[in-house]
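User: Please predict the structure of the protein below. I'd like the answer in structure-token form so I can feed it into my own downstream comparison script.

Assistant: Understood. Taking the following sequence of 129 residues as input:
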Amino acid sequence: MRNVFFLVGVLLTTTTLGAHEMTPTYPTFAPSYVGGLASTELTVFNARKDVEFYQVGVFDRDWKPIPFATPDKLLHIPYTERTTFDVFVRDEDVRKAIYVCTLSKLRSDVPSNAIISSKICSRTDGNVR
């Protein structure tokens, strides 16, 4: 039994967990400079050494995708860097847009011990200024 506790302790101390962070936690959509669209600005910080790419998505209350636009749907963010980006949603869909999420994308061609993809979501609740 003591060996099991020792093994668990060794595994926990040698495993590192990492994620990314996205702010603001509760973004608000505002009328955009483009007619018929609302926009919000988000910032993502990459705290993972093993990941450099993050996919952006917008979802409704039932996690169904909402059509949106952003300069890059796949963001390249080096380790310890942050990037700010705008998300644009049609005026008729903005009240349905509940979650804006970023999902870390693991690369199969890079040898790594990363096996977990992280997903961070900000909740908008269809808030519009």
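That's the full token string. The longest helix spans residues 2-14.
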